DNA sequence: TCATAATTGTGATGTTTGTCACACAATAGT
DNA sequence: ACTATTGTGTGACAAACATCACAATTATGA
């Protein structure tokens, strides 16, 4: 479990023991309980997080008070309010634990230092960012092309595990439908 | 006009004349006519494009034969089917000119070489990729939080120029509503 | 310039989805 | 074990949006 980050990075670039130790020295380990907020809307965002275990939701609370889930973050995912993190502005989203969660966090300073001092990691971050961009485009496409029922079925196919770990009202919020509609879609 | 790319890069990192010449040597200039395809669904995607002038649409043709526009690309935008480009798979989207368009294209080889040989550009590409990811998240959020009418008004506010350059049926396709609904929303 | 194609507006109608209301089930904390 | 809280299912109704049909307008090209 201690080297989950290493395995994750080595899917993109190989690392020696020393290199991994150097990388790891830029992170700090944090633990959160269920329902804890890692990022709160309106506060400043100083870190980006790698999920070791547990489950997070990145969400936006609209003026109507409704919860809109931009993404879930499971084991091996990177998450933050990236807009706020990279531009050092206040969070427009919150990052909250759905389960007890362990993360490795990296500050923007350390992120920049790591990228600047260690080309392998700049390459890794670039790959990850591109992958994130592509994943977001896929999600946009599903809104453009698919009905609520189709989006539900796509999610069920792609991340069946979510249906066991996440209350359905949150899945509804992720899919962009009301919980009542989601309930009716499932049969 | 010839140094539009340079100005664009220098918004992120400064470049000497020599450095810019080096960067530029990795690109080739291409011109396309209205309605030309730069990328066709099903073909391989060997390049990523920087728009010097003109206007493109990145779209997906569903099984129903409908056009779903993932994004428009105007002056100073980078566009490609990034999933296909980075993983060297077949295009799932098409990239087509709405207007006569001039681009600078870079192959994946040159992209990787440029990033590897010239840290400033790897940094630049990382910044751009992060910005793209953030922009996509904003778009997801607008689908989650906003009605068709609200999305229409957001688009009108953010890119009024599109309403002069793009047929409304394409805007409808971008917003995810029928052209009839869009027509009714506009008054 | 004229004919053709592409785009736009609008009514009538049906489908999908949201909202409100309430009962019931599951979960968490003491 | 027992409340309080949180989550789920379902009916009735309203709102948003899609679809079809057709007329009107605006580009486009030989």
Structure description:
Two copies of one chain form a homodimer. Chain A is of the alpha+beta class. Chain A folds into two domains: 4-129, Jelly Rolls (Sandwich); 146-187. Chain A contains nine helices and eight strands. In chain A, the strands form two sheets. Chain A has a four-stranded antiparallel beta sheet with strand order 1-8-3-6. In chain A, strands 2-7-4-5 form a four-stranded antiparallel beta sheet. Chain A is globular. The structure holds a DNA duplex (30 and 30 nucleotides).
**For the terminal residues of chain A, how far apart are their CA atoms?**
38 Å
Strands in their spatial order, largest beta sheet of chain A: 1-8-3-6
The CATH homology group name of the largest domain in chain A: Jelly Rolls
CATH topology of the largest domain in chain A: the name is: Jelly Rolls
Assembly state (oligomeric) = homodimer
The count of β-strands of chain A is 8
Major sheet attributes of chain A? 4 strands, antiparallel
Envelope shape of chain A = globular
Structural class of chain A: alpha+beta
SS summary, helix count of chain A: 9
β-strand percent of chain A reads 15-25%
Radius of gyration of chain A: 17 Å
Instruction: Extract low-pLDDT stretches of chain A.
Output: none
In short, what is this structure?
Chain A has 187 residues and is an alpha+beta fold. Chain A contains nine helices and eight strands. Chain A folds into two domains: 4-129, Jelly Rolls (Sandwich), CATH 2.60.120; 146-187.
Offer a few descriptive terms.
homodimer, 187 residues, alpha+beta, Jelly Rolls, 4-stranded antiparallel sheet, 9 helices, 8 strands, 47% helix, 22% strand, globular, DNA-binding
């Amino acid at each position: 479990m201690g080297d989950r980050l290493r395995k994750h990075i080595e899917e993109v670039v190989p690392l020696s023991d020393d290199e991994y130790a150097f990388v790891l020295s830029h992170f700090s380990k944090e633990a959160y309980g269920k329902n804890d907020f890692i990022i709160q809307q309106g506060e400043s965002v100083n870190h980006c997080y790698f999920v070791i275990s547990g489950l997070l939701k990145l969400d936006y609370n609209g003026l109507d008070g409704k919860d809109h889930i931009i993404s879930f973050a499971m084991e091996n995912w990177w998450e933050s309010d990236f807009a706020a993190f990279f531009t050092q502005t206040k969070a427009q989203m919150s990052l909250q634990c759905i389960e007890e969660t362990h993360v490795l966090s990296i500050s923007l300073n350390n992120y920049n230092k790591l990228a600047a001092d260690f080309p392998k990691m700049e390459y890794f971050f670039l790959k990850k960012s591109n992958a994130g961009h592509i994943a977001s485009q896929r999600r946009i496409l599903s809104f453009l092309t698919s009905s609520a029922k189709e989006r539900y079925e796509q999610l069920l196919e792609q991340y069946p595990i979510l249906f066991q770990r996440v209350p359905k009202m949150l899945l509804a919020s992720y899919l962009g439908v009301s919980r009542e509609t989601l309930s009716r879609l499932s049969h």
